[in-house]
């Protein structure tokens, strides 16, 4: 299978999925490691900025402790409750810092948190008291943002330049990269484009037929600068925003593309590319983007009901199987990063 079979010219979706799979298995690019665990997600960001790929470098012990709060993300309201929940029973208004918005919303978050088992709750003297189930750990070490541009020509670089400059200035991520497709030239064209000097450049060459980890070759063409601010530890707003971003990455992962695509379509398939599984449309005879693969697609056909009974669980057909496979793979990755809490056997390379 050629790279163009996964990300045709001008399309970034397939390239992005391959970059995510490589990062999950081989981060950091220079091969060095401080023993960090890694969580990879895609299409995450803030109201003002969304990145193609997010790599969260985690403290392994902290990541294992984070598992105590379940597999789903903790949104901003739940984080406010969980991070400040006291070790002993206390009225929630005494225990939690003022949120800057009405307490009734905090009370609703307390009920949600208790319902998910991430805090304990009781009513005493007509007041709602809370107690933590465990301290919320300091599990995030660094956040790395990656922009994926397989064809980083001059026009693409110009369009990205201002965004990348703002990424460097705001420094929400500790490090910023651009990932592009290698051309094989003596000097990669990306080095000659208008990319901020603080931003690293990764050139990727993918070969579906190469054995093992050789399917993806990532070359560092330019090393990034660490843009973490000097006052990062005392900047509570930055810390909170980064935790919210890391929580979303923890809950979603990069395989969550099936949430916005239609694996229940009879034409939806997963095909192996190297050590990755990527979506493929049998009707189009090639790859599709997440935007194309929707109920509005003229080729969309629901799975025939008979598919859901012929050897498949009654509650779903192949589409449910695809969703289950991708979810199981995400769980296996978590188990690999902190094996004392999860499975240690690979259910199938992806």
Descriptive report:
- A six-stranded mixed sheet has the order 1-2-6-7-8-9, with helices on both faces. Strands 3-5-4 form a three-stranded antiparallel sheet. Strands 10-11 form a two-stranded antiparallel sheet.
- It has helices at residues 13-26, 60-66, 76-84, 92-95, 103-116, 154-170, 236-252, 318-337; strands at 37-45, 50-58, 90-91, 119-124, 127-132, 140-148, 175-181, 200-206, 216-222, 268-273, 276-281.
- The protein is globular.
- The relative contact order is 0.14.
- It folds into three domains: 6-63 and 138-250, 3-Layer(aba) Sandwich (Trna Endonuclease, Chain: A, domain 1); 73-132; 256-337, no CATH class.
- Residues 341-348 have low confidence and may be disordered.
- The protein is an alpha+beta fold and 350 residues long.
- Pfam families: DUF5787.
- InterPro entries: DUF5787.
Q: Which descriptors would you attach to this protein?
A:
single chain; six-stranded mixed sheet; three-stranded antiparallel sheet; 8 helices
Global structural class: alpha+beta
Distance between the termini: 16 Å
Low-confidence stretches: 341-348
At the first level of CATH, the class of the largest domain is Alpha Beta
Beta-strand portion reads 15-25%
- List the quaternary state of the chains: single chain
What is the radius of gyration computed over CA atoms, rounded to a whole number of angstroms? 22 Å
Which bin fits the share of residues in helices?
Answer: 25-40%
Number of domain modules: 3
| CATH architecture identity of the largest domain | 3-Layer(aba) Sandwich
Summarize the biggest pleated sheet. 6 strands, mixed
Placed side by side, the strands forming the largest sheet appear as: 1-2-6-7-8-9
